[in-house]
Structure formats: C-alpha cells, structure tokens
Amino acid sequence: MTLIASEPAGDDRDIPETPLALGLAGLTPFIGLALALALQHPVLFGIDAAFALTAYGATILSFLGGAHWGLALRHPAADIRRALYLGAMVPPLWAWAALLVGGAGGLALLAVGLVGHGIVDAARSGRFAAPRWYGRLRLVLTAVATIATVAAAVVVGYAG
What we know:
This protein is mainly α.
C-alpha cells in the first residue's frame, strides 16, 4: 500500500520520540544565545550573539516554510496544495527581512514570524495532512523560541 500525505500512519496523536527530541534540541541555540545576551556576552566565541540568534531563527523559520512545501507536494486537493505552496514562501521571505533589519528590530520581526507560523501550524496542520501531534509540538517549540527571541530583542534594544 502506498501512503499519501493525507493518510495517517497508525495512531498519530502522540508526539513520536524522535521529532520531540530533535525539536527540543533545536531550542538550544535560541535559549543559549538569548542567555548569552542576557548575561551581557554579546560576542560569543568571536560571533555576534544577536546576529547568530537572528540567523538561526531565520533558518528555522525557513525550514518551517519548507515543511508546508513538503505537505503541499502530495496533498490530494489542488486548492489546498496551491495555498500551501504560496504560504510556504512567506516564512523564508519574512526571515530574510528579519536578517536585513538586524538588531532588536530583526529579532522582534523574527519573533512575530515564529508566532504567526506557530499559530498557523497549531490551528490548521490537521487540515494540511500533517499528523495530529504536529500542532501540539509546534506550540511548545514556538512558545520557547519566541520567549527567547523576545527576551533577546529586549536586551539588544536596551543595550543599543
């Protein structure tokens, strides 16, 4: 039997260990770089911590857009497929804008993008043939990444 994206593979309510572990591990740069900035270490190993956090967040936001592109590839409904393709382009463009703005403004812009994408994923991922656990995972990851990014934006804003 060939599965398509709209067919759940077994019980898809519980978050599998691998995506959970990888998602939580992916929070390490958000937390670590935000802490470095909060502890007044704006340069860490010769790297600007604010820029590193913005760049990492931009990478993650682009990755999340790619997840929607992947969902679109095999979605059976043409109208949803088209919307997913178009929507998948918003996160990397938003992330690029955050990189161009830089500093506290770029971090704030990034936080807004993370929240926006997290809301879309949590509210609509089931409609896009993602497993039911995906929205819950995204809420947790979005909350932590956003808190770290907002905290870093505040620290950078006050320091600058």
